[in-house]
Amino acid sequence: MNVGAVLRFALEAQTFPASDVMAATGLTRSTVLGLCDTLVEQGWIDEVDDSREAGRYGKGRPARRYRLRDRAGYVVGVDAGQHTVTAAVAGLRGNVLARISRPVAGGNGSVRRTTTRAAVDAVLAEAGARPEEVFLVVVGVPAPVDGQGQSPAGHGFWELMNPGFPAVFEGCGRTVVDNDANLAALAEQAHAPGVTSFATLLSGERFGAGLVIDGKLLRGRHGGAGELRLLDMVEGVGSSEGLGFLARQWAVAASKARTLPPGSALARFPRADLSAEAVFAAAAAGDEAAQGIVDRLGERLARVVQVLASLLDVEQVIVGGAIASAAQPVIEKAAAVLQELFYPPVPRLVASRLGADGVLLGALECGLSMLRAQPLQFAPFSAGTGH
User: Fold this and answer.
1) How far apart are CA 219 and CA 149, in angstroms?
2) How many CB atoms lie within 10 A of CB 159?
3) Do 294 and 283 touch, CB atoms closer than 8 A?
4) What are the pLDDT digits (tens) for 8-47?
5) Of 17, 77, 193, 206, which has the maximum CB count within 10 A?
6) In what order do the strands lie in the sheet with 15-17?
């Protein structure tokens, strides 16, 4: 118990004098110094220059100081998206040591498993880490996930997105699978702790929300909180298709119907290149056809936001995912529609500052938080590098 208490403190404080451990744990000086010596031997922490040499003390007995070893073990985060897998590895101080992305070529679970394991192996090699030094692998998937890491059966897409990942990472410590929007919400919570009730809305191909209410992430019995299938029944929305998907589809449809004005920037794009980013950039530059698409998307987004606000009384909705920064014209339109059509209070609507990295950073944050809370549950006592 005492080893766990000191190790938890070290994981949070990262650099600290022994006196701070004494104050936090209530343990005696001799006990703390003995436990710190043990953790040094096990490779968890290093002893650093004493406080007198560091300029903190001028008289009396100098305090011994310690620093968490960043490479005593590793946490791997994975954003296993529909089309791309991105993996990153972090040390125990949270420093991202390497990251890698791989396209998912093919539409079956076997390909996803193979691609994801290959990405993790590659990112560990780039970071100079071995699989047996990994404490946790946290994987974010675009599907609801229950407490056992499983997605509900009977929905082909969900089963494809979550094709049994825990068995994929044998030899890499413990594997945790979670919904991608939930992990994005955890990342937003870590980077903006002052907001206690908010929704992180992933809005690329499909809408999905990570919901934090009164500081706690909502999951639901089957992990389906925030799935937003109810949007099929919302007037003015009609489906959970996301901003990126619809911007692309509507631009292509206008091109095929030859309704784009000759002077439109969108008319100069081959249909295969009509991306959501191209639409949003054209709208920001004043293109009338692109602005029409943005207005439609803004009205749709406003209704989605109002549904979340009405059900959960959130104070803020964060538009996340790779589309977030490009979608600023849509967000501005939606914010105006919220003020015009709906009763106050309406939530603030903002673009995520994390963008495409939200899920990945959330996966790392999830793993590090679990490790800090119960380090000996995920790592053996002698898990330090080289011991």
Assistant:
1) 12
2) 16
3) yes
4) 999 999 999 999 999 999 999 999 999 999 999 999 999 9
5) 77
6) 15-17, 65-68, 45-48
SS (H, E, C) the chain: CHHHHHHHHHHHHCEEEHHHHHHHHCCCHHHHHHHHHHHHHHCCEEEECCCCCCCCCCCCCCCCEEEECHHHCEEEEEEECCCEEEEEEECCCCCEEEEEEEECCCCCHHHHHHHHHHHHHHHHHHHCCCHHHEEEEEEEECCCCCCCCCCCCCCHHHHHHCCCHHHHHCCCCEEEEEEHHHHHHHHHHHHCCCCCCEEEEECCCECEEEEEECCEECCCCCCCCCCCHHHHHCCCCCCCECHHHHHHHHHHHHHHCCCCCCCCHHHHCCHHHCCHHHHHHHHHCCCHHHHHHHHHHHHHHHHHHHHHHHHHCCCEEEEECCCCCCCHHHHHHHHHHHHHHCCCCCCEEEECCCHHHHHHHHHHHHHHHHHHHCHHHHCCCCCCCCC
**Burial of 57 (C-beta count, 10 Å sphere; 0-12/13-18/19+):** middle
Closest to 323 measured CA to CA, from 383, 242, 214, 261: 242
Quick: pLDDT tens for 223-262: 999 999 999 999 999 999 999 999 999 999 999 999 999 8
How many residues comprise the chain?
A: 387
Q: Beta partners for 206?
A: 241
